[in-house]
Amino acid sequence: MPSSLRPRDLALALLVIIVWGLNFAVIKVGVAGVPPLLLGALRYLLAAFPALLFVKPPKVPLRLYLLYGMTMAVGQFALLFTAIHIGMPSGLASLVLQSQSFFTLLLAAWWLREKWHGNQVAGLALAGCGLVLIGSAHGASMPLVGFALTVAAAAMWGCGNIVTRAVGRYGPMNQFAFIVWSSVVAPLPFVALSLWLDGPATVWAAVQHLSFQSMAAVAYIAWISTLLGFGLWTYLMSRYPVNRVAPFTLLVPVVGLTTGWVAFGEQLLPVHFAGAGLLMAGLVVNVFGGPAWAAMMGRLRGAQ
User: Fold this and answer.
1) Cβ(36)–Cβ(127) under 8 Å?
2) Considering Cα of 122, then 132, then 273, then 95, what sign does the dihedral take?
3) Rounded Cα distance, 178 and 161, in Å
4) What is the reported pLDDT for 198?
5) What is the distance between the alpha carbons of residues 30 and 47, in angstroms, rounded to a whole number?
6) How far apart are CA 151 and CA 153, in angstroms?
7) Which of helix, strand or coil describes residue 53?
8) How far apart are CA 240 and CA 117, in angstroms?
9) Where are the alpha helices (DSSP H) in the chain?
10) 139 by DSSP, 3-state: which?
11) pLDDT tens digit sequence for 230-281
12) Beta partners for 139?
């Protein structure tokens, strides 16, 4: 594998980050006209059809399709869409959702018995302090329930990452095809939840009065963010070492926060900036701090 991204692939990586960063603002537009759980159903319906007609399902046990669909799709986005619907700023949502990497660490240690490194513990501590600061600033501009739902969405993303590890045991496969076919799992649970929580009358009225703006938001979330974004990301992850590609996701909140400010006038308080700085510092220490931590430990052992 090449160690550094070629210019064309670097451009593709930045395109994915822009697509994913803009996605949070598009979600805010979508939930303004469609109940959040119905929006989730429409998203995954379009992500699955007609794409599944052109790709074969990878040979993975049905339970993993179900687990991936219920965690990464239904669990994560039912919570995230609802959070933004009740007032969570889209830019802050893009930032807080990045805490998924630390939920992944916690779940991997508990479920997979993976050992932590010092830089991961330090990163987790920094990110935890950042989340506490952000959560402490709840009020009219950020409801506490919206913040809590976003953190829960990050936890569900972490669960989905553990399922992805299990999927990886079945050898090389077409990850894009797996995403398409796992999308089939999501629409029915989303519809059932929407009928239960929103009521049949609300759901039917929303379907009957879908605006062009709502349909455009659904199309972006399904085709651009899900299929194009994950398709390009899978391509890059298959061509380069993970540690060369994964850090690009640190730029998603930059795009998300900027878009929220430009499109909706979302303002950050000083405590938000402080919390964001700690959370991003924790992510950087987690992603890049391994070699530095190993070198420091080596020097300490040498001094002894």
Assistant:
1) no
2) positive
3) 14
4) 95
5) 16
6) 5
7) helix
8) 24
9) 7-33, 36-48, 62-68, 76-85, 90-96, 100-111, 118-136, 144-168, 175-182, 187-197, 200-208, 212-219, 230-239, 242-245, 252-264, 270-303
10) strand
11) 888 878 876 777 667 777 888 899 899 999 999 999 988 888 889 888 988 8
12) 142
Tokens for 161?
């990452």
The two structure tokens encoding residue 94: 């893009």
What is the Cα–Cα distance from 116 to 2, expressed in whole angstroms? Answer: 28
Q: Of 95, 142, 96, 127, which is closest to residue 256 (Cα–Cα)?
A: 95
- How many Å separate Cα 222 from the centre of its chain? 14
CA dist 217 and 30 (Å) reads: 5
| Paired tokens of 221 | 């979330």
List, in sequence order, the alpha helices (H) in 70-139: 76-85, 90-96, 100-111, 118-136
- The single-letter code of the amino acid at 168 is G
Q: pTM for this one?
A: 0.89
Rounded Cα–Cα distance for residues 125 and 4 (Å) = 30
